[in-house]
Amino acid sequence: MLPPCASVLVVEAQLDVLEAIQAALEFDGYRVAAVLGSKGALEALERMGRPGLVLLDETLPEMERARLIRFIRQEPTLRSVPIVLLSVDEHIRLPEVQAVLRKPFNLDRLYTVVRTYCEPRREEEGPVHSASAEASRSEDEAGGAQRARGLSRS
């Protein structure tokens, strides 16, 4: 059995996709640090400590994406953190990432890929909180659950 994740870092270029992933993972018991674009990703890593997993959007500017991956792989406390690339191209291969999650994806596929690397935290392991680095949340929890359902379970 995999250890529970302290948190999952999601770095995504599209706000609606970022919010949907964040809502879905929080609903499933994960702590999520959500970053819109890559500008705040390094700061989010410093604030949150070592995440259990990084979900990284492939459409981010290549230099910024490469810089973030390089930072994670060179930092001793982070180098073993799995990185999953979110991409429309399922055939893309980068040696620094453990998997590619092909866009668009449904909730079942998202949960399967995330659970490959870490289990969600459970109530007895402490509260689950969201740490939003760049994305603002203007909707309540019901709106977040609605966004999560928008990813679908088909």
UniProtKB/TrEMBL annotation:
Location of region: Disordered: 121-154
PTM sites of type 4-aspartylphosphate: D57
Domain of life: Bacteria
SMART domains (UniProt xref): REC
Family annotation (InterPro entries): Bact_response_regulator, CheY-like_superfamily, Sig_transdc_resp-reg_receiver
Keywords in alphabetical order: Phosphoprotein
Signal peptide annotation: none
Record-annotated Response regulatory domain positions: 7-118
GO biological process per UniProt: phosphorelay signal transduction system
UniProt name for this protein: Response regulator
Organism this protein belongs to: Cystobacter fuscus
